[in-house]
Design goal:
There is one protein chain. This protein is an alpha+beta fold. The chain has a single domain, classed as Glutaredoxin, CATH 3.40.30. Helices cover 26% and strands 19% of the residues. The chain contains 4 helices and 6 strands. The strands form 2 sheets. Strands 4-3-5-6 form a 4-stranded mixed sheet, covered by helices on one side. The model has no long low-confidence stretch (mean pLDDT 96).
Length: 154
């Protein structure tokens, strides 16, 4: 049975990140975009990371250009935008696809637990400390509205 730790993906800087490094952590996976009406959620995601990171939460951002072409930038442009506009310090990864023929195996796995296409930028999946998907949250749900679910898992 596949678990989060079975995946390895590249960060924005091109370095490989083995997800086994997140073993025993509560992981929030979010597909992101820099030119979306929901882009301000970067701030709320960073707040979650800062507030709960030392308690075991990891926030992982996955830029995606599948929804309205709202993430057209290069890896460097994405990194700079996130740092300068929202002071993002949580890990960001190379662009990927969350639906369709080019869908990342990570998203195939996430959606197996909670079926259905990812509806838009900033859809969220919560992976428990055991490496299995425990919740899915809609794109338009602000990160601060996820606090109870996160605290319950921590």
């Amino acid at each position: 049975m596949t678990q989060l730790g079975d995946f390895t993906l590249n960060r924005l800087d091109g370095t490989a990140q083995e997800f086994s490094d997140y073993a025993g952590k509560l992981v929030l996976v979010v597909n992101t975009a820099s030119q979306c009406g929901l882009t301000p959620q970067y701030g709320g995601l960073e707040t979650l990371w800062q507030t709960y990171g030392d308690k075991g939460l990891v926030v992982l951002g996955f830029p995606c250009n599948q929804f309205g072409g709202q993430e057209p930038g290069t890896a460097g442009e994405i990194a700079q935008f996130c740092e300068t506009q929202y002071s993002v310090t949580f890990p960001l990864f190379e662009k990927l696809e969350v639906n369709g023929a080019g869908e990342s195996p990570l998203y195939t796995w996430l959606k197996a637990a909670f079926p259905g296409d990812v509806e838009w930028n900033f859809a969220k999946f919560l992976i428990g400390r055991d490496g299995t998907v425990v919740a899915r949250f809609p794109a338009d749900l602000p990160p601060e509205n996820m606090v109870a679910a996160i605290e319950q898992q921590l």
